[in-house]
Amino acid sequence: MAIIKWTFWITLWLLVAAFLHYTLPQVDIVRITDTYEKRIDDDSIFWADTTQAVDGSAVNRDVFFIQTRRAKGDVMVYRNEDTGWGWPPYFKFDTSNLQAEAADVRSASGTPQYVALKHYGWRNEFLSIYPNAVSLKPVAGPEVGKGLPWLNILILTLLAALVYAIWVRWRRFRRARIDPRMEAIEDNLAERRGRFARWREERRHRRNL
């Protein structure tokens, strides 16, 4: 039971950590190399727009992409989709404006212009998953710090406070309601086992007479 219990809680917290890592905003210092538009028909949950046709198939749509290169040289591609009123709640409606800003700060390796690009999500080449760009702003260079993620700190603090409050109330409820009942059940079972043992012993004694 202990192994099952720890496996359950470890799996649960790993899923929570993965959800938060995907959803919370992150900042990359990158150089934009190109912007383009591509027609896709993927209805994966990792896309902001998962509209489907009447027959259940994905609806073809055009999606903006932003190609970048980080200071260390590795390439990163971002999608540029509106989140609208959906999840995650970034309330992003300025996809076209962001694409225009990204196109305006494109630069070559000889004359690099770096930007701080805020995004959420993951990049996975095998599953064709792209992080979604949320905003960008030009920065002096690749050595510029990303700054403290105040929003992430606030959200994680509030989440930790909520989890702690629920845990405290659950402990109080368990001590007041569940533990006494469990102890009563255990005492009842122990008493029944004792009665059965005494009955069996008396029966064995009678047979020996």
UniProtKB/TrEMBL annotation:
Entry-linked InterPro entries: Phage_phiNM3_A0EWY4
Chain segments annotated as transmembrane: 147-167
Q: Which UniProt keywords apply?
A: Membrane, Transmembrane, Transmembrane helix
Q: Tell me the protein's name.
A: DUF1523 family protein
Q: Which organism is it from?
A: Sulfitobacter aestuarii
